Amino acid sequence: MKYLKILLITCLTFVLNGFSQTPTDYLTKDFHKNRREILRAKMPTNSIIVVFANPVRNRANDVDYVFHQDPNFYYLTGYREPNAVLVMFSDNQTDKNGNLFNEILYVQKRDKRAEQWNGKRLGVEGAIRELGFKTAMNAEDFVKLNIDFKKFDKVFIEKFNDDYRDLSGSADIFNLVKDFKIKAGYDPNIYLSRVKEYVYNNIANTPIESSANVIQIINQVEGRFEEIKDDKLIKEYKTANTDVLKKDIKQKITLALKPKTNIDITFLTSNLATMREVKTAEELKLLTKAVRISAIGQIEVMKAMKPHMSETELQGIHEFVYKKYGAEYEGYPSIVGAGNNGCILHYIENNKTKIGNDLVLMDLGAEYRGYTADVTRTIPASGKFTTAQKEIYDLVYEAQEAGITLYKIGTNMQAPNLAAIKVINEGLFKLGIIKSADEKHPYLPHGTSHHIGLDVHDPGNYGNFEENMVVTMEPGIYIPDGSNCDKKYWGIGIRIEDDILITKNGPVNLSEEAPRTSEEIEKMMAKKSVLDDFVLPNLD
Ligand code: GLY
Ligand code: MN
Ligand code: MN
Predict the structure, then answer these.
(1) Each residue of 156-170: pLDDT tens digit?
(2) Which end of the chain has fewer beta carbons closer than 10 Å to its terminal beta carbon, N or C?
(3) CA-nearest residue, atom 3 of ligand 1
(4) How far, in Å, is the centroid of ligand 2 from the Cα of 346?
(5) pLDDT digit string (tens) for 364-401?
(6) CA angle, corner 297, sides to 292 and 298, nearest 5?
(7) Burial (0-12, 13-18, 19+ Cβ within 10 Å), 438
(8) Pick from 39-48, 57-66, 301-310, 513-522: least confident
(9) Which domains does the chain have, with CATH numbers?
(10) Which helix (H) or strand (E) holds 48?
(11) How far, in Å, is the centroid of ligand 2 from the Cα of 416?
């Protein structure tokens, strides 16, 4: 009987999904539930977590940007709509009927008219049925029902950016946050800025006899962050000319570091970074798919690229391949930069109308069910690298190879970056582009390794590599026009970026399908593309 029931439910689910014809391979509700349980286990007793959904952002007039859920909120709930709040309790709570609960998801209320204009809402029933929450309520209940935030020892939230509008609804994110702030007694001024906190911590934790070191640190920080110069206590510490005075200010600073509220803005960010930096099997399936789609997109562009094409057209070819595989979005704005444009790290105009014989840098990532790839290939529009281009390309490749071999469990995540810098510096010196291998130069202005996941720059602690992390390896060399070197290198911007999975058996390059060596790229570019015969009417 039990099996018959399971079979019927499975068939029904299949039929319903079949009818709605929407993707069925999102993260499961068990994944999100499990993430909440892991996080709850880290909460001290008598604490509460409050996480808000992302706001809808306006593009212009009555047109909004496509909504994108806050990745932490999505990780914990699976809810893909705005105007929602997740509340989690460390300890069981009792409702007015005596039922126990330890979490509530507040969601957008079903609304026939709104749904006709802007699409179906999950509502309370949907949140219970599809996301597996035992307790879900309409967002307006978050405002109506009183949670006494003051009774908890700790209220864990993420720092508010307050970068959204008050819409007309009474339970939009603006009102939900506003209501929370009032009830919880949130005072934004109570928090020290991160930079100030860093300096204060240095002062508080350094013995008076070593204060010269602290002053050196303060001077360095002041060079980068003007705000520090105006801080009264830091100023006093710097000018105090006796140990007694210094000790007195140190005490005041230690006191200023003590929280005066039960609201904590670090717990969630740091624990979610620890959780999100290591991927589960479910996440790896989606992330691997996103990466493979992106690598295949690169292959199609390699075959299709012709000197008469524009940067926008190339972007379109990639993005068509993503969509063909059902990837919803790009994980970040596509970067397609020909020639000197390739030297702009986050170039997103992509508006050069003819790539000619330029080298084209293409940094593109499909987002599949929320997970984003980050793959870069740099290829010659003519199909053949010039000697100068190949010299620089092969050097970046060598640096990438040196880095990838270090993607091993237990290795510090800085190591690949340092290895790549070494290869690049020695190579640039050999080519005569810099005068010595330890000369400070502007040709590699970024690091090589970041986590990917729900964010393209996924959160993490950046300690040692652990099994099931997925981290980019992306060395580059950028020599803009007018650089202080032989003109033949001007306008060469090259980045090679792959997404590497850390396993017990060493690094696995998830984007390896897209050719990487200069020889393999030239071979791929010589192949015929289906787009060679795709001709549209001329409109000029
Ligand atoms: N696409 C941005 C990056 O490579 O980090
Ligand atoms: Mn990257
Ligand atoms: Mn990238």
Answers:
(1) 999 998 888 888 777
(2) C
(3) 374
(4) 10
(5) 999 999 999 999 999 999 999 999 999 999 999 999 99
(6) 100
(7) exposed
(8) 57-66
(9) 27-187 (3.40.350.10), 194-257 (no CATH), 277-525 (3.90.230.10)
(10) strand 47-52
(11) 14
